[in-house]
Design a protein that fits this description.
Layout lengths: L43 E3 L5 E4 L9 H6 L12 H5 L10 H6 L3 E2 L11 E5 L14 E10 L5 E7 L5 E4 L17 E6 L20 E4 L5 E4 L1 H14 L9
Antiparallel strand pairs: 1-2, 3-8, 4-5, 4-8, 5-6, 6-7, 9-10
Length: 249
């Protein structure tokens, strides 16, 4: 027994006060950042020094993590926080999801509440140090819970990585929004949407995700599988059958 038991004796990576949100990253079993090919939506073309030099082809369709998780990848063009980028001609980008949390009725989960597929997670700066997200605190990243284990711990999240592509990875994967640009540590807060908003969990226009589909089996019960879950199964199968091409329509 140690005073660090609340965080699995790992107070550096486990700074959730109760240690019950998600487990530390295990490099042997957990999924690292894995950006899906063809899902990037860049705004700019960069030179060898990493400086933007021109607008990328199709930059108008660029969207980011907040748009992906909260706006069905369609952006939030009427939010004043997005006025500048909308004026630039990029309406699908969302700079600030705080209004979406309120408007969609998302409820912040308590530290001991089991996660569910479709919950949202934000990586934020806990400015007042109270261990929960409060309106006005900076949100660095948004993602969607993609899978949970039998205990209700999140095992993977799916999210857009800015102008880069969509990644499915463990919520504590190395370099996954662990700090902001100033080196401040982020914390995670999980939210659940009302059932009426569950349809917004994914992007119909994205080949790696989609709305939950329901089918009835022979005994009349429902089997629910999201596109992200289906694609994860397909990707695993394709890894063993690289010569097979699958088209999702």
């Amino acid at each position: 027994m140690t005073p660090y038991a609340y965080g699995d004796n790992n107070p550096i990576d486990r700074f959730d006060p109760d240690g019950q949100k998600d487990k530390p990253f295990n490099s042997k079993t957990d999924k690292q950042i894995s950006i899906q090919p063809g899902t990037a939506t860049p705004i700019y073309i960069y030179n060898s020094q990493g400086n933007p030099i021109a607008l990328a082809p199709g930059y108008q369709n660029a969207y980011n993590c907040h748009s992906y998780a909260w706006d069905n990848s369609q952006g939030d063009p009427i939010d004043p926080a997005n006025a500048g980028i909308v004026a630039m001609g990029v309406p699908r980008w969302d700079n600030d999801p705080s209004n979406n949390i309120i408007e969609q009725g998302a409820q912040q989960l308590s530290s001991d509440e089991a996660n569910q597929v479709g919950d949202r997670v934000i990586y934020y700066i806990d400015a007042n140090g109270n261990g929960q997200y409060d309106e006005g605190e900076t949100i660095e990243h948004s993602a969607i819970v993609n899978s949970v284990d039998q205990e209700g711990y999140t095992t993977t999240v799916i999210g857009k990585m800015g102008q880069n592509g969509i990644s499915v990875n463990h919520p504590n994967a190395p370099d996954y929004y662990t700090t902001d640009e100033y080196g401040n540590l982020t914390k995670r807060a999980y939210f659940r949407l009302p059932n009426k908003n569950k349809k917004n969990t994914t992007d119909n226009n994205n080949p790696f995700t989609g709305n939950n589909t329901t089918s009835n089996n022979s005994n009349g019960s429902n089997n629910n599988m999201s596109w992200s879950q289906a694609i994860a199964i397909i990707n695993s199968w394709l890894a063993q059958n690289p010569n097979i091409i699958v088209t999702v329509q």
